[in-house]
Amino acid sequence: MLKTGGHIDYNTEVITVRHVSKSFGENHVLRGVDLKLHNGENLVVLGRSGTGKSVLIKLISGLLKPDSGTIEVLGEHVDELNEKELQQLRLKIGFSFQNSALYDSMTVRENLEFPLVRNKRHLSRAEINHEVEDVLDAVGLLNTINQMPSELSGGQRKRIGIARTLILRPEIMLYDEPTAGLDPITCIEINGLINEVQEKYKTSSIIITHDLACAKSVGDRIVMLLDGRFERQGSFDEIFDTDDERVKPFHDYNFIT
Ligand SMILES: Nc1ncnc2c1ncn2[C@@H]1O[C@H](COP(=O)(O)OP(=O)(O)OP(=O)(O)O)[C@@H](O)[C@H]1O
Ligand SMILES: [Mg+2]
């Protein structure tokens, strides 16, 4: 599957990370990271387990503070915001976590209403219904509206999790391993969904993945975290056009049997 491309504005940066370092004791995880996310872009972040990909997302969303360097998100300096300002900013960021658990005791409809009722209190009943149905339709699961999460497959739950994130109409989506633990066909569906979300909701996204098929089909641009920095970036083919022994095994493991 080839990327059909969204409408990317390379002159507008929605996230700018400059020279960010983060250590936990003697564990120097990020060592001067620079990263840009452009408006409308799907940016894939690759890197071995433990290289700091999830830490990076936590820094971007203000859940962790950098030791040094600056992070700008939608024009705001994340490290200078107070808790209330951070909460406001986070409403514009959608997080799709690896184990984005749904509430098991609530129906799909109730799961989706939850963030709306909490964060957009001015909405009427009819508006809430409309929003819920719109995002469910976008993820192709309108027919599950009255079901319980336990009645859904892993891939369906993942889609509902993405719908629940989309319902607040975030400008930025952060996907942490969206296809982890799913079978190849479901992975292809989720990749398609990530591209549809980019098109329909005009989101700018960071997608963290170990799945190179995912990287290839969703990434407008790919960056690879190596030894605490983004040393390689470009298109899928550019990233892997190297003899670097830290990079080659990623490709070979995924594509050579
Ligand atoms: N709150 C924390 N306190 C101490 N160490 C932490 C904390 N969060 C992360 N780390 C450490 O930072 C490093 C990077 O962790 P991170 O979760 O970002 O890895 P990752 O690249 O997302 O890996 P994976 O691909 O397995 O998800 C790890 O060594 C981890 O132990
Ligand atoms: Mg992680």
Automatic annotation (TrEMBL):
Pfam families per record: ABC_tran
Name recorded for this polypeptide: Phospholipid/cholesterol/gamma-HCH transport system ATP-binding protein
Database matches in SMART domains: AAA
The organism's taxonomic lineage, starting at the top: Bacteria, Pseudomonadati, Bacteroidota, Sphingobacteriia, Sphingobacteriales
Keywords, comma-separated and alphabetical: ATP-binding, Nucleotide-binding, Transport
MF terms (GO), sorted A to Z: ATP binding; ATP hydrolysis activity
InterPro entries, alphabetized: AAA+_ATPase (IPR003593), ABC_transporter-like_ATP-bd (IPR003439), ABC_transporter-like_CS (IPR017871), P-loop_NTPase (IPR027417)
Domain ABC transporter: 15-252
Domain of life: Bacteria
